Structure formats: C-alpha cells, structure tokens
Structures
1.
Amino acid sequence: MIRFRAFSKHYGPHRAVDDLTFTVGRGEIVALLGPNGSGKTTSIKAAAGLIRPSSGEVLLGEPGRPAGDPTARRIASFMPQKVTFPDSLSGREVVEFYRALRALDRARVDAVLRFASLNGAGDRLVGTYSGGMVQRLGLAVAMLPEAPILLLDEPTAALDPDGLCAFYSLLDERKGAGATVFFSSHQMGDVERLADRFAILVEGRLVAAFTQRELSARLADRGLMRVRLDRRPEGLLERVRAVAPKALWAVDELIVPGPASMRPAVLDLVRETGVEIRGLTADEGRLDAFYRELVGQGMTTE
C-alpha cells in the first residue's frame, strides 16, 4: 500500500532522507523510529504527497500511484506532528470544515468527536483547548474519511490519558477494518503495543527493520540473569558456558546474558554443585536500549 523506492529528499547540501526503499503492506501497522532530524517527518510527509522526492518515488495504493497524485491522496489521511486550528472556531466547526472538503456524511462529525473523547467539548472554541485537546481534535480530523491509509507523525507527543485511549482505540479500529497505518513515535511503549513492524532511520538512512517476532527474538537475546551465590564453585563457570557462552563472574554473582530459554539449564547446573543461591534476578531486553544501540551503530562520524 505504501512503497518507498530509492526515495531521497535533500534541501541544498542537506540530505534529509537518503535512498529509502521500504514497503508498508496492506493492513500493517508500521512504526517509524529514529532520533530528531533522522528523516521521519520528511518520509511521512512524502507519503502524504506533501513533499516531492528529489529522486526516487513514493507510491500509494494498488496499483501504486505517486503519493502527490489526487487519486493517491484521496485514499490517505494525514495527521502532522504539530496540529494547529483557528482559535476562533469551535472543535465541531473545525471537523465540519474538513468533512465538507472531503464531501463526507455529516454523521461522521459526531462520530469522530465522540471517538476522540471531545464530544463534551466540541462546541467550545479551540482557543480554550489544552494542548492535549488540540491533539485529540487532530485525531478526530484524521479519522474523518476512514481512509485505507493512515499517516501519523508523532501522534502521541502531546496526548493526555484520554487522548492516548482514543489513539489506541483508533488504531485498533482501523486495523480491524484492514487499514494500513504508518506512524512515527519516540514512545517505545506505544511502539511495542501497536506496531506489527518497526523501521529505524538514522541520518536519513534506513538502518534496521524488524517484524514484531524478529524484535522479540532480538530482545530475548539481550536478556540477563544474575544469580548471587554464597561461594564460587570450582568449574561451575566452565560448565555454564557450555550452555550460555557469555556467562561470567562478577564478585559473588554469576551473570548470564541471553534468552530466558537457557536459564533453567543454567540453574540446574548451579544446583548440582550444592551451592546456596542467595539472590536471583532476571531482566529482559528492552526496546529503548536496543533502539539506542542501533542508532549508535547507524551514526556516521565527521
């Protein structure tokens, strides 16, 4: 549904995105990650038809059409990172304006205001809204057309708890309807909860892409078990390393990096020595730590 083919965008000497080739399939929810300035917003705006490629192309739909074509833009709905609306209009008037632009059924206005938890504030002026309420109004506008492609740039950045609930409900509803969702985020919890796949941009280049299953396997490999013992039995570390090659001693603790699946065998080896286990902790790999590792690997040095 969304295809980046050798997409590049540069502004003078600055290359915001460099040779991006990536596909978001029908019905997928894909999260785009990366530090500030990595090209996330440029990529999503290009998919929305708001930025023309310097080279390459971005195609939407099946068959694929250039994202800037009117036919392609009609099947997509875009929510920018920072949404702004006239302070002198009510929330309902804002939604009605965008409904009229798309020639949609009037019933959609009440539906999206309710879905975005703004049904009680729809008649208030936007100038009286909090930042979180303005962001929720942006969600309401993005939800209006029920488009098969949803493009969201940092949608949870300013959301309050009600807004987060609305956002989660939106993605669950759109996924259930078979829609394709492409969104950027710095919130690792949102990413792990929502995304089927993850793509990481660093300095405008795609440095990694994983499915949910692949990511789970990568994180499992980064788990860590610590076993605190009353002494160091001779030969234990060598036997443990036959199961967990990266195991090591740290004072009175046996440190065992790796997936949880190897831990029962390690503990069996420890018990066979008759040593007393005085403490046991286990930590699973974290997406935020893995993300920072990938970003660091993708950085160029000047």
2.
Amino acid sequence: MAESKLRDQSIWLPGASTVEGAPNSLEIFHNSPKVMLSPHWHAQVEVNFIMRGWVHYKMAAHDITLEAGDMCFFWGGLPHQMDDRSEDAVYAGVHLPLVHFFRLHLPADVPHRLMLGATLVTSATDEADHLDFRRWREYWRSGDAPRTQHAVDELLLRIERVRFAPYRLVPDEGCADSLASLDQQSSGTVGRICDFINAHFLDDIESVDIAAAVGIHPKYAMNLFRRTTGMTLSEYVNLLRLSYAQAKLMKEHANVIDVAMESGFGSLSAFNKSFRKLAGMSPSDFRKVSAVR
C-alpha cells in the first residue's frame, strides 16, 4: 500500500461510524472516503455517489473502480473494503436498511442480484445530484423531523430513478437461479419481515415468530425471504447480530463472552462459529486487530 494511504487522516478507523452497531438505522453521509485496512460489513444496502476523484472497492467476489459521476448500490452484508482512492476523492451516499430497500420500485432482478453480491453502477448523474446529496445530508442532520423525513423521501425517490436510466450490474453474468418478477405486495411483505427482525433481532426469535408478526404462514415467509434476498430468515437475524457484535468488539476492553450474550447468541460456540464464517477470523482475533489500529 502506498505510503500516502497510511497517514492517520486517510485510514478508516473501526468504530468511527455507527453503521455497524445500528443495523436498522438509515444514515446519509458526505465526506472524503478513507482507506480501509481490512474488510467490514453492515446490514444495510450502501449507495455511493462519487462526486470527485475515484475509489476502488474489493467486494466479496469482484473488484471495482468508480469514477467521478458514478453512482453504485451494493449489499453491505457481504464483506467489502475500499482499499484505494485518489487524494482528492469526495463521495456521498446512504446506508439503507432492508426495510426501506425492499419497498423501493426497482427493476425486478436488481434486489436479488445485489443480495447475492452484484454491484449496480450507473453514470447517469448530473449537477443536481451534487447539490441534492449535500442538502439531504444537511436536512438529515438538522434535528428537525419534517426536514429529515423530506430528505429521506427525496433520496429514496432518487434511488428509484435508476430504473429509468442506463445501469450495469457487476459482474454482468446472469444469476443462475434468476428471480421471477416480484409484485409490490410481495416486496412489501419482505419489508415488513425486515421491519420485525430489525426491531427484535437481539431477542430469542424464530421463523414462526417472524411469520406470525407479519400474518403469513412460516413456510411462505421462509421461501419468500430466501427467494428475494438469497438468505434464510435465520441467516438475516444472525447477520444483524454479527453487525451489532462487530461494533461492540471495536470498543476498548470488550469482553468476547459478554458481546456474544449481548448480541443475542445463546452460546459462545455459536457466536464464534457464525463470526468466523463471515469475518474469516475469530471474534477474539477481530478484537485484537481492531484494538491496535
């Protein structure tokens, strides 16, 4: 890695944002991106608009370079790392919880492809996007509820507008188990499932509890959710718990056993197994790596 990337002001610090520990929160950002020394993950779809310069991402299954004027969407639940960027890079965007994402009117194959690891990229942006992202960030941080809601509503409509413009999915090969078009009612059901899980992921919940809260049969809930997201209900619950645990482990003097229990895992062994599967290392090793940065 070039020496310039190792300057303190250029490195992303674990725990510097709340996105990992608040998986059901929507966050709008506008800043100069920081180089990541290792991948991270969070339980939101991420939207990046490159306003100036360029950035390079190592995604779970592909690399991608984004130039000024590009906008991209990707599923943050898969480990990803911004490992390079130009010195003048500026970007804006949003971390979008699934409860919002699955209520959007997007091309039918896009949500499914993103959940399986594809990145949507469009260059159909203009000066209005530069102005709007700044304003949405300002409104979102204002503390004024009507302004905040106005910013969120406008931003969601802007994301939906991608269906009217040219875009590409990276990688571009079709998905082997292609998704049939979901009607809006089914997408709304997935949104309600996400809403319930987001509110209760730290509790002891199972598929029957989730389905009952939404008013559908457990088998239908499991099939619909997996067909739409590529995850089982239990995998999504685990992802939220792991995202929450990741943020806890970044705190100084974090105790792995305490974090496991606070994050909704019934045992340390279950926590270790789930964490290692996603992060590629044990929670203890992750805590050590985070503590030395």
3.
Amino acid sequence: MLIDAGPGETEMDMRQLRYFVQIVESGSLAKASRQLFIAQPALSQQMARLEDEVGKALLVRSSRGVSPTENGDALYHHAKFMLRQLEQAVGVARRECVAITGRVALGLAPTTVCRLGLPLVVHLREKYPGIVLNIVEALSGHLASMARADQLDLTVLFNHTGASDLTIEPLLDEELFVIVPQDSRLVAKNRTTLRLEDVAKLPLVLPSPEHGLRKRISVEFERINVQIDAVAEIDSLPLLMSCVAAGMGATIKPMAATLALGASPLRWRCLGISGTPMTRANYLYTLPPHKRSNCVEIVRNELKHVVRRLVESGEWKGVKLPVEYRSPRAVAAETSAEMDSIASDA
C-alpha cells in the first residue's frame, strides 16, 4: 500500500514504514530481518530508499546496532499510529457482520489491575467480544513513558502531568491504609486507625523511593518532620504483600493491594490514617479525539462504567468517585449520610 503523494511530495510504502518500526523496536537490522523474515541486505536497501524519499537520515548505525535520529523518532511515533489504524481498517473490511472489532491497549498499575483488571476483561468480553483488550501492567512511571510514545490507547496514572498531549479526566480517589495481616501483633486488635507518628514506629515494607506511591507517602512524613525507616523496599506488589503476610512488617497501600495474593481480603487489616488521611488521585488518560478509534472510545466509556459499578456496589472499597461519575442515587445517598452526620454532631 502506498501513501498518496501530491506534487513535490514523496510516495511512501506502508511496507517500508512497517520495516522501519520493526528496526527501531529491535535495535538492529539483524534482529529485525529475522522478525520480518526478510534478508538483511534487502532490508537495508528498503531503509536507504525510505531515507532517500524522506530526504533525511532516519537511523544512526553503530557497532552496537541502530537507533533513530530525531527525525527518525518523529517518524516512528507517527508510523506506529498509522499502522495501528491500517490494521483496524483492514479488520473492518474483512468482518462479515456489523460487530465492532479491534484491539485496544490499556495500561494499568499493579494495584489497579488487582481490582479492575478481571471485571473489566469479563465485562468487555461479554458485551463486545470483537474487541481484544491488551492490558499492560507496569509501574506508573513506565506507563507514562509508553503513553507519551503512543504505545497505549488508554492508561490510568496517578498524576495529571503524565502525558500532557493526551485527554485527561479524573477517575477516582484512593485512600491509603496501613495494611497488616489479620493476626499481626504489630497493632493492637482494638485499633482501627493510626496516627502518622505511630505508623512511623512500625517496621515498614514499602516501594523504592523512585516509586510514585513512595513519593506520596514521603510528602506526609516530611510534613511532620519524621523520617521513613523502611525495613525493605520492594517494587513488586505480590512480593511486597507476601513479605507483609509473612510478618516482616506493615505497608501503606490502597485497599486494592489486599487482592494481590488472591481474592481473600479478610486475611488483612486495613487501618485508616487519622489526622491527615492520605489519598491518591487516579486519572484516566486517553488518546486525543483525532487519534481515537471507535474501539478506544468504547473501552474508555465501559471502563468508567465498570469502575462506577465496582465502587457503588461496595466491591471496590476505600475509593471515592468524582461527582460527575456517580449515579444520582449514589449522590443522594452520600448527601443524606453527610446531613445525618452533621445532625448527630450538633
């Protein structure tokens, strides 16, 4: 397939773009030739032709492989988008009915996967079986990098500056809890909350200082001039929760983390932090409208629907929805509860 060229413009082959993308992602012509099942000399010839048509160097070749130039990097991101759109267009042309089909890449952090992953996959599979949902689980910093590189259609991040060129909307707010095993002797059985000063005295198993959640926790500890003294720093959620389960210490996480070792949250105690409850905002990032396929728009809307259902049914505990996502019944119930609380305090 050729990209139509106007007067004075180049005529670019989509096959060349596919080859170019594979070379950039492989980091070498040799690896790319094996992935593409094309001889390396022929692949080099195609890249030389592409660079000649563009009129700019696209690849830097060295003894350690190849890497894109600044122009090549720009072409890579646009080519990825064009190839994804082409794949979806071909899928539409080949389908035999009006069913919606396509592939959507969604990035989720480990704690979000614990609570949202399975319900969302099941929901979409039942309602839109033609949509293939590719869930990428990674730390939020890596997800932000992938989002900026157009490698994700949607992602959930914990700040509103992760990828400024994408559409951003608030998804939910998570409360952070001190989590210990149900039989832990670190905290008295009658306690349901802890002051931050008391939390600092516990042996803590936390993510590394580079982790977004650790930075959020550190801000609160610095506010009371207390230093965090972690007994272990672990960026793997299952391993971190396994260490806590084994009695190594307590951790500070959203309540969804209690599902990391299986659907048995009753094995854990989640204690609120009194005085200054810690929360973490969740934002939904989506490709801008002009890059958004119909499938991406569907997944975006269904994700918000599943989140609202999980929260309002009580399945997703320790979180709060933005007002615009809540059903009228939920808003009315919350308002009534607040009024009852004010009346009881009066």
